[in-house]
Write a structure and sequence with these properties.
about 260 residues; alpha+beta; Alpha-Beta Plaits; 2 domains; about 10% strand
């Protein structure tokens, strides 16, 4: 088996890894792609030479440069089942709390919880895309990216409209107790997700992205908890609306990044 290493000078975020994976999808010679996002290097394991690999990378205009090619005794591709199990675990945690926070957010009239639930849903889509990246075929990845991106934008837009409506018409103060308690459980769930992800030493961008999104979730959870206490102390819905608006904007930004992958 041959091993070819490329320098990808503009590969500085998870979006570039996914773009590269989709661009190289369909080349039967390729058996594995290993990404070192910190050093901006791509290692391609392939069974024989194919100039189309380099041509497709050049088409992306990411500053790709062939560094070296050599033979390896590696008879088979390393198992990546552990990555798959880890990603499935965090996917189930995030989707479960999407449902929990959405339901409790609606009943407690908390836009912070509703927004955080959509952020959990957005992360679930990211983990689904990451699972597709773990040694699996990517033929449907563009479609999944587009559908998930549009879906998140629609939901987040509706949430932003609802925040504005509640601000104008002065809705009742949300249930701060529910905000605080549910967010504490969500914080614990995200902490568990981070612990699970830390069990892998992989530096591939899809794993790195999962860790980044989970750490961002922890910050958002803390923000909703603080907003809950602010609602309690001020007896005002404004802290809840503010945190809700911030999280909805974060969801839209994440959706736009995912849509980029579907182009």
């Amino acid at each position: 088996m041959k091993v070819t290493t490329f320098l990808i000078s503009k590969m500085d975020c998870p979006s570039e890894e996914n773009l590269i994976r989709m661009k190289l999808d369909g080349l039967s010679e390729i058996k594995q792609l290993d990404f070192d996002i910190e050093n901006r290097k791509l290692t391609v394991y392939h069974i024989h030479d194919n100039p189309e690999i380099e041509e497709r990378l050049n088409d992306l205009n990411l500053g790709s440069k062939l560094l070296k090619t050599h033979e390896t005794d590696k008879a088979e591709i390393k198992e990546q089942k552990s990555q798959t199990k880890l990603l499935w675990a965090v996917l189930l945690i995030n989707f479960s709390f999407f449902v929990i926070e959405l339901i409790t957010g609606i009943f407690s009239k908390s836009m912070g919880l509703v927004a955080d639930s959509l952020d959990m849903l957005a992360d679930s889509f990211v983990y689904i895309l990451s699972l597709w990246a773990v040694g699996a075929a990517l033929s449907r990845k563009k479609l999944v990216a587009r559908l998930s991106g549009y879906f998140q934008i629609v939901l987040a837009s509706l949430g932003i409209v609802e925040v504005i409506r509640r601000f104008i018409f002065s809705e009742n103060t949300p249930g701060y107790k529910t905000m605080i308690v549910v967010s504490l459980f969500a914080l614990a769930a995200n902490a568990v997700s981070m612990w699970i992800l830390q069990k892998t030493k992989s530096k591939e961008a899809h794993i790195t992205a999962s860790k980044i999104f989970t750490s961002n979730d922890i910050i958002i959870n803390i923000g909703v908890i603080i907003a809950g206490f602010a609602v309690m102390l001020s007896n005002s819905m404004l802290p809840d609306l503010i945190i809700g608006m911030i999280v909805f904007i974060i969801v839209v930004q994440g959706a736009l990044r995912i849509l980029k992958l579907g182009k």
